[in-house]
Specification:
The complex is a heterotrimer of chains A (340), B (294) and C (291).
Chain A lengths: L3 E10 L2 E11 L4 E5 L6 H9 L6 E6 L2 E2 L11 E3 L11 H11 L4 H15 L14 H13 L5 E5 L7 H18 L2 E6 L2 H7 L2 E6 L2 E6 L1 H6 L4 H6 L6 E3 L15 E5 L12 E12 L3 E8 L2 E8 L9 E6 L5 E4 L9
Parallel strand pairs in A: 3-8, 3-9, 6-7, 7-8
Antiparallel strand pairs in A: 1-2, 1-4, 4-5, 9-10, 11-12, 12-17, 13-14, 13-16, 14-15
Helix pairs in contact in A: 2-3, 2-4, 3-4
Chain B lengths: L6 H32 L17 H8 L1 H33 L5 H13 L2 H11 L6 H8 L16 H26 L3 H9 L4 H29 L3 H7 L10 H11 L3 H30 L1
Helix pairs in contact in B: 1-12, 2-12, 3-7, 3-9, 3-11, 4-7, 5-7, 5-10, 7-9, 7-10, 9-12, 11-12
Chain C lengths: L1 H28 L3 H4 L14 H7 L4 H6 L13 H32 L5 H13 L2 H14 L6 H24 L4 H10 L3 H12 L1 H17 L2 H6 L8 H10 L5 H21 L1 H14 L1
Helix pairs in contact in C: 1-14, 3-14, 5-8, 5-11, 5-13, 6-8, 8-11, 8-15, 9-10, 11-14, 11-15, 13-14
Bound molecules: adenosine-5'-triphosphate and magnesium ion.
The site of adenosine-5'-triphosphate has 12 residues of chain A, from strand 2 and helix 1.
């Protein structure tokens, strides 16, 4: 019911440009994640889509309808805020029912809809409480409830999970994913947490400095990062990016200045078709299922993740095999990816 | 047509309309109108002839002996009132900023003078100063400070100070409140640090409290000056400018000129002079205090 | 120990200074004219009674007052006291209520909406706040006279609105700025226009500031003297301070009667100040500190 098209979307605050000519086409029912470091313009973009920030330049379409100048209450989008933004003077039931009340829905119908949403989000026992009597996770669910009660076709979420503790964040993440499957609405989700982005997104737009650096599926972003910024922003631990010390794949033109990237997990025991790197193990950090280690190869130090049954010890010499096809090559000057 | 203005612009225009209408009609327009009046020779007893006289009203008043007296009286009154109010307010703020039993009650009492209408304030002090039945005479006699009852307000040397005293009583609470707010914002760590350094109570007051109080003090000084320099109510109710010209202040002069002599032109010119004086003074205060602060 | 003594000593001084004069006024109002004119004075009323207040509330019926055998003259305007009390109440309530509506909407627009002319609006409000009353008196008198509003309650209401609005708008703006912006955003998303956001978010959450603004507007109107003196001429519109000032300047007036009138004028503002102390102090200091 609602595809979102941003054409040259720009936001300026006085002399500062927060978002620069952003083009983004979000398909109907798609789960789009805006990912990027703090201050890159994610919230500003989301607020422009919501109508909460005036658009300085460019056009915003919902399907084919131009909504660039439409005030937020006419846009029929739902939004979940990082701070939850529950009305402190209203009960949980009133908070959830509020959007319906504003639309003139009959009280009985509101009560029914609120009960249904509460059931779905396990809030039924809390309906008469006020927000200050709820835990963070409960507040977040109320905020979600307030958003879904209207059955909107567009959901906007601004770091909805960042105030929750780690376990709660995981369960809320899967709740949101299930919601998306069930509602089949268009989701635009802002986060700076790459794990959230990778697990939730149909597509991810990685932003930096008010500009989209790469727009692709999670696999695409991870497997084929468009530049060194995207490459190092995703992946934990970070990708190893080196000018020297890693083997140059054969197809890289000789003489061209490049940066080679190796994901920490892209190593194996030396073998056929693999280039062998030999180095000294400087540091071993067991992670349970895997082991993270630092290997100094010549001048360079690589961070690697290996199966725990390798049983390496600090100080020993280790040979690892690297598949040249899994190396990432970037132009040293432009930082852009060079494909074979 | 309206589409040129966004929803925000249109809503805001509607929402500020009532306030702007009131302020424009009842404040902004009269001020401009008053300037026009001050450039004309308008006397209410002669309503048809109102010639344009340029700045003559201003020159006439600047050269008028009553104006000179009024400036002097206003200055004395303002300096005394502002000075004593500020000192008293610092004392009261220091007292009320302490934690002790009864502190709440004193805080409530502090609002009593503030809430008292200025006319009742004038009536009350006039009654206290009453030459025959007043409290002041009785108390001072009892304490042996005077030997005979005196007509306090009739003494030209004292009148202004006695009016000032009434004004101080009413104005001190707000000043104290402002200072208390400023004091509460001083971090306790500053005092602890000073204590650790071995500072005495007095040293702590001079080196910690006073500097931190500077923004509050500036506020109090500006505010009290603005209030005092244009104060009118007490002069009307207590002395009407007298005895002689002992309490003939600028605001009283404006009142006499306008509503007794019905010379609106000069009255308006005087009002402008007073307004400019007020702005000038508060500007000076802000410069003097603000800069050393920053 | 020494601290305790000091605090006690200064507290007593403070109480004497602040409450003493008012207590004496109160004491005088409860005495008969013969008692109040005793030399040396009676500190406390020897036969405390409400006769002066009764006189006021029987509409200054001088015959009855005289029949009670009380010495002293009733002021010529005594019969105006009750109507003026009513006028004062009326003016105060109108100013308070209109303030609430006007200041609320304007403060919302200035604090929340990013509209063209926002700065200009803010500066206009600020500028009118620093204009001294005395400079307004002459032109305002002329304007009100030309509008034919002299000697009407309406003239006072409009004037007091102009005097109080800059301050109440300010109190509300500084309060609104403390309300989380996300609540506003959420309400807009949920379907509120600006009117809805004001009604559903800002209004219910700013009760303390609203009380402060209401109190400030009412007290200012109740206490104001200069404008009332100039803009009203007969009992039809004159407020309490005007009538009382008339008594004080009338040399034949009975002191006890005037003092009782003073007590009546002091009572409502003091009661309100005590009841709403917390809000008033917060409002006063917030408005002043921010300005
Ligand atoms: N009201 C404003 N005035 C001026 N600059 C602003 C304003 N709001 C945001 N900015 C600037 O715009 C840029 C983008 O801000 P935005 O809030 O969109 O970042 P973000 O990606 O959401 O960051 P975070 O992850 O920290 O929330 C920042 O550099 C910020 O300083
Ligand atoms: Mg953000």
């Amino acid at each position: 019911m609602a595809a979102i098209t941003c054409q040259g979307l720009t936001k300026r605050y006085g002399g500062v440009t927060a978002v620069q000519a952003l083009d983004l086409a979000i398909a109907e029912g798609e789960f789009m994640v805006l990912l990027g470091p703090s201050g890159c313009g994610k919230t500003t973009t989301l607020n422009m889509i919501a109508g909460l920030e005036e658009i300085s330049d460019g056009t915003l379409l919902f399907d084919t309808r131009d909504v660039t100048r439409l005030p937020p209450h006419k846009r029929e989008v739902a939004m979940v805020f990082q701070s939850y933004a529950l009305y402190p003077n209203k009960t949980v039931a009133q908070n959830i029912g509020f959007p319906l009340k504003l639309r003139g829905v009959a009280p009985a119908e509101i009560a029914r809809a609120v009960a249904e949403v509460a059931e779905q989000l396990e809030l039924t026992a809390l309906l008469e409480r006020r927000p200050n009597q709820l835990s963070g996770g409960q507040r977040q669910r109320v905020a979600l409830g307030r958003a879904i009660v209207r059955h909107p076709s567009v959901f906007l979420m601004d770091e909805p999970l960042s105030n929750l503790d780690a376990t709660l964040r995981l369960s809320m993440r899967s709740l949101i994913k299930r919601l998306h499957h069930k509602l089949r609405a268009t989701f635009v989700y802002v986060t700076h947490d790459q794990a959230e982005a990778l697990t939730l997104a149909d597509r991810i737009a990685v932003m930096q400095g008010g500009v989209i650096q790469q727009l692709d599926t999670p696999e695409g972003i991870y497997e084929r990062p468009a530049n060194t910024f995207v490459a190092s922003f995703l992946g934990s631990p970070q990708i190893n990016l080196l000018r020297q010390g890693l083997p140059r794949p054969g197809w890289v033109p000789a003489g061209r200045e490049v940066v080679i990237g190796l994901r920490p997990e892209d190593v194996a025991r030396p073998g056929d078709g693999l280039v062998t790197l030999s180095g000294r193990v400087e540091l071993v950090s067991p992670l349970g299922s895997e082991t993270q280690l630092e290997l100094s190869v010549g001048e360079a130090t690589l961070t690697l993740r290996v199966p725990k049954d390798w049983r390496v010890a600090e100080g020993e010499t280790l040979d690892v095999g690297v598949d040249p096809a899994r190396l990432h090559v970037f132009d040293a000057a432009t930082t852009m990816r060079i494909a074979p | 047509m309206l589409a040129r203005f966004s929803y925000d612009d249109r809503s805001a225009a509607l929402l500020v309309l009532p306030v702007m209408a009131v302020l424009l009609v009842v404040a902004a327009f009269p001020i401009l109108y008053s300037f026009w009046v001050s450039l004309h020779d308008i006397v209410l007893t002669r309503p048809l002839r109102r010639p344009f006289v340029g700045l003559e009203n201003y020159w006439r008043m600047l050269g008028d002996a009553r104006f000179h007296t009024a400036v002097l009286r206003t200055t004395v009154y303002t300096v005394v009132t502002v000075g004593v109010t500020t000192v008293l307010a610092v004392g009261v703020a220091l007292l009320l900023n302490e934690n002790f039993r009864g502190n709440k009650l004193l805080n409530t009492l502090l609002l009593l003078p503030w809430a008292t209408p200025s006319i009742v304030n004038g009536l009350m002090w006039k009654w206290i100063y009453d030459p025959t039945y007043g409290l002041l005479n009785a108390v001072l006699l009892k304490l042996g400070l005077i030997e005979h009852y005196r007509a306090w307000l009739g003494d030209p040397d004292l009148t202004l100070l006695l009016i000032s005293n009434a004004a101080i009583w009413k104005q001190m609470p707000l000043a104290a409140l402002l200072l208390i707010v400023t004091m509460k914002a001083i971090p306790d760590d500053l005092y602890r640090a000073a204590k650790v350094d071995g500072a005495t109570v007095v040293q702590r007051f001079v080196h910690v409290t006073l500097p931190a109080l500077r923004p509050g003090l500036m506020l109090v000084l500006v505010y009290e000056t603005m209030i005092s320099i244009r104060h009118f109510d007490l002069f009307l109710i207590m002395t009407q400018g007298g005895p002689g010209d002992a309490s003939y202040t600028l605001s009283w002069l404006i009142y006499v000129e306008t509503f007794r002599s019905l010379r609106f032109g000069t009255g308006a010119a005087l009002s402008y002079l007073l307004a400019m004086l007020t702005f000038l003074l508060s500007w000076l205060f802000i410069r003097a205090f603000g800069e050393r602060n920053g | 120990m020494q601290r305790k003594l000091m605090l006690g000593f200064f507290s007593v001084l403070f109480v004497l200074y602040v409450a003493g004069p008012v207590l004496w006024l109160l004491s005088s109002s409860l005495q008969q004219e013969s008692e109040i004119t005793a030399v040396p004075p009676n500190w406390l009323p020897p036969n405390p009674g409400l006769h002066n207040f009764t006189a006021i509330f029987t509409a200054g019926d001088s015959a009855e007052y005289a029949n009670r055998g009380l010495s002293g003259f009733l002021p010529s305007g005594a019969a105006n006291l009750l109507p003026s009390l009513y006028n004062s109440l009326q003016v105060g309530l109108w100013v308070a209520v209109l303030n609430l509506v006007f200041a609320l909407t304007a403060a919302y627009a200035i604090a929340v909406i990013d509209f063209r002319g926002r700065r200009a609006t803010l500066y206009t409000v600020l500028a009118t706040r620093v204009i001294p009353d005395i400079a307004l008196v002459v032109p305002l008198f002329l304007v009100i006279r030309n509008l034919g509003l002299i000697n009407s309650i309406g003239a006072l209401v409009v004037t007091y609105l102009a005097v109080t609005l800059p301050f109440t708008v300010f109190i509300l703006i500084s309060y609104f700025e403390g309300i989380p912006r996300d609540l506003y955003r959420a309400s807009r998303i949920d379907g509120c226009g600006h009117w809805g956001a004001l009604r559903h978010v800002y209004l219910p959450l700013s009760l303390p500031a609203l009380v402060a603004a209401l109190m400030f507007a009412f007290l200012t109107s109740w206490n104001e003297f200069l404008f009332a003196l100039v803009l009203t001429q007969s009992a039809a519109a004159q407020t309490l301070p005007i009538i009382i000032a008339g008594f004080v300047m009338d040399f034949t007036t009975s002191f006890s009667f005037v003092n009782a009138a003073g007590v009546i004028a002091i009572l409502p503002p003091v009661l309100l100040a005590v009841l709403f102390q917390r809000y008033i102090v917060a409002g006063l200091t917030a408005g002043a500190v921010k300005g």
